Amino acid sequence: MDNKSQVREKKKAQFAEGAQEGAPGKKKMTITLIAVFAALLAVAAYLVLGASKDNPASTAVATNAVAGATASRDIAIPLSDLSDKAKFFDYKLPDNKPVRFFVIKSSDGQYRAAMDACDMCYHAKKGYHQEGDDMICNNCGLHFHSSQINEKHGGCNPVGLPRTIEGNQLVIKASEIESRGSYF
């Protein structure tokens, strides 16, 4: 037998031994993968169900909007929960499709609401984030001053949501959100 054949046979023998000894290793790997998967599920459950009220990614369904929903499913958000920091909400359409919107008290003192989408970049499903007094499109990077939300329309401007102030609550009609569901 030449040297190459000997090396090959030795590797085959090592592989066969490792395969026989590997069964307990496979069990350990399977248990580890199950543990990692369970941990990921726990984190996901926390993010969906346990989102903090102060978290900018709070969910309307799990927090303010349902608690303040009227019989017609309109969304009522206490003004005391709103500030110059945009607060994002998730809302489920009647077909359980999730949509997202945000509310902010702009620098001119007005409460403003908009879908977390625009006419141009909605297909990317990236929404907006806030920097200072601007809302910024996460897809194209354009800046929109908070006082222009609900004032300017089209392009990458956030899709405005009509809203009213009733007592100490900002009210958004569910039908207004539902009519804009095609952005999600």
Set down the secondary structure blueprint:
Elements: H1 3-49, H2 64-67, E1 75-78, E2 87-92, E3 98-105, E4 111-118, E5 128-131, E6 134-137, E7 143-145, E8 158-160, E9 164-166, E10 169-172, H3 174-178
Antiparallel strand pairs: 1-10, 2-3, 3-4, 4-8, 5-6, 6-7, 9-10
Considering the protein shown, what is the CATH homologous superfamily of the largest domain?
Rieske [2Fe-2S] iron-sulphur domain
Alpha-beta content class: alpha+beta
Low-confidence stretches: 43-71
In N-to-C order, the SSE pattern is HHEEEEEEEEEEH
Helix content: 25-40%
Known CATH architecture of the largest domain? 3-layer Sandwich
Rg of Cα set:
26 Å
Strand order of the largest sheet: 2-3-4-8
Which shape, going by the Cα principal axes? elongated
Number of helical regions: 3
CATH structural class of the largest domain: Mainly Beta
Mean pLDDT: 74
Instruction: Tell me the β content.
Output: 25-35%
First and last CA, distance: 68 Å
Q: What is the fold-level CATH name, i.e. the topology of the largest domain?
A: Rieske Iron-sulfur Protein
Task: Give a quick account of the main beta sheet: strands, pairing sense, barrel closure.
Answer: 4 strands, antiparallel
Q: How many separate structural domains? A: 2
E-strand count: 10
Tell me briefly what this model is.
The chain has 184 residues and is an alpha+beta fold. The chain has two domains: 1-49; 64-183, 3-layer Sandwich (Rieske Iron-sulfur Protein), CATH 2.102.10.10. It has helices spanning 3-49, 64-67, 174-178, and strands spanning 75-78, 87-92, 98-105, 111-118, 128-131, 134-137, 143-145, 158-160, 164-166, 169-172.
